[in-house]
Amino acid sequence: MLEIEKLHFKIGLAGTYWAKRPIFSISVNDVAVIEKTEIIAASQEQFFVEFDVEVPEGPAVLKIRLENKHWSDTVQNEEKTEILKDMLLHIKSVEIDEIDLANMIYTKTNFTGDDADRPVLDKCIDLGWNGTWCLPFESPFYIWLLENI
Fold it and tell me: Residue 104 sits in which domain range?
């Protein structure tokens, strides 16, 4: 019989924006935890999203999505050599059961854009186009953590 583990997540996010605010969603094992939600904090200001999830024993995935980026949200200079204004979603931190995963948010993750022509990016915590950031982990969480630190 599979064991169920209840985990508490605390995710630090921030948005960069100049016109419209980023919309994000969060899921664990493809079950929506935070439905599409618009950032309410000021541009560049970090805020936290906290929730509890029951995770069955075995592989699991935390996913954070940027949902509403449009090409017009990025403004470049005339030479197209510099970005003047942009819309981004920044993943600042991830805590699971009050343990900060620190550099694991870079080393154990990837970002896949919705556009199939874009490459899958490792070590990406600044989401600049619509897509999904994934942090695979396992339950029991503490055993996975000990094996991966």
Answer: 4-148
b/e sequence 14-32, b meaning 16+ C-beta within 10 Å: bbbbeeebbbbbbbbbeee
Identity of residue 61:
V
CATH code of the domain in which 88 resides: 2.60.60.40
- What's the chain's length in residues? 149
pLDDT above 90: percentage of residues in the chain: 97
Report whether pLDDT(1) > 70: no
Q: Tokens 């169920």, residue?
A: 4
Using DSSP bridges, classify how beta strands 47-56 and 58-66 pair: parallel, antiparallel or unpaired. unpaired
Tokens of 41: 């904090």
Per-residue pLDDT averaged across 13-40, rounded?
96
pTM above threshold 0.90: yes
Which 8-state DSSP code applies to residue 113? E
Kindly indicate the confidence band of residue 149, based on its pLDDT and cuts at 50, 70 and 90.
confident
CB 83 within 8 A of CB 101: no
Query: CA-CA distance, 20 to 38, in Å (whole number)?
Result: 9
- How many domains, the chain? 1
- Return phi, psi of residue 71, to 5°: -55, -30
